[in-house]
Design a protein that fits this description.
Blueprint lengths: L1 E2 L6 E5 L4 E8 L5 E7 L14 E4 L6 E2 L3 E6 L8 E4 H35 L5 H18 L9 H5 L5 H20 L2 H4 L4
Antiparallel strand pairs: 1-6, 2-5, 2-8, 3-4, 3-7
Length: 192
């Protein structure tokens, strides 16, 4: 890698995919692991809302350096590592924070609307919507590596990358259930 000699901190960025763990090693007598990240585990000091896996490069890294990236994962891996400066990373973190804030804020508003509807019209199927919103929230948190903000999130993340497709699969059931309720299928097609 060719790291600029401007004295700034740099990070190695790898897009999220079916990766259990990434480790960054530097050669030398003896070779040393300098950073580790993965699903449910962030390399510190990590931004609050990363949009990818981030590994901090050693602070004294400038000029041409050699690093080794160890990858533990499943499936077809398409690796496109990027080197980002702390300034670029901060700008991306701000835009990610805005996007994730809007996503989780919208899910929270939907949950509050479902709770309000349950109190005003108990037979309206609001608890099905609330269950669907909760399942969507967990699936989104698993996809975006934000499980650490949920109760039991670290335990869920320790199950590995299979949590993401399983989360979306589990989220589909209450979504279909609430859709069937609001479409009136329970009234028109009782056996469906």
């Amino acid at each position: 890698l060719d790291i600029p000699t401007d004295g700034k901190r740099y990070w190695l960025r790898v897009d999220r995919q079916a990766i259990d763990r990434l480790r960054l090693h530097v050669p030398g007598p003896p070779p040393a692991q300098v950073a580790e990240t993965g699903l449910g585990k962030r390399a510190g000091p990590d931004p609050d809302w990363p949009d990818a896996f981030l590994l901090p490069l050693p602070e004294d890294s400038q000029g041409l350096i050699t690093v080794y990236l160890e990858v533990d994962g499943q499936g077809l891996l398409y690796m496109r590592p990027e080197i980002l400066s702390a300034d670029t990373l901060e700008a991306r973190d701000r835009s990610s924070q805005l996007l994730y804030g809007a996503l989780y804020g919208l899910l929270m508003l939907l949950a509050l609307a479902a709770i309000f509807r349950q109190f005003t019209r108990p037979a309206a199927g609001a608890w099905q919507v609330l269950l669907a919103v909760a399942a969507l929230g967990v699936a989104c948190a698993a996809t975006n590596d934000h499980l650490d903000m949920l109760p039991l999130g670290n335990w869920i993340a320790s199950l590995g990358p299979k949590v993401v497709p399983a989360g979306w699969l589990v989220a589909c059931a209450p979504l279909l259930w609430s859709s069937a309720h609001y479409a009136g299928l329970d009234k028109t097609r009782e056996g469906l």
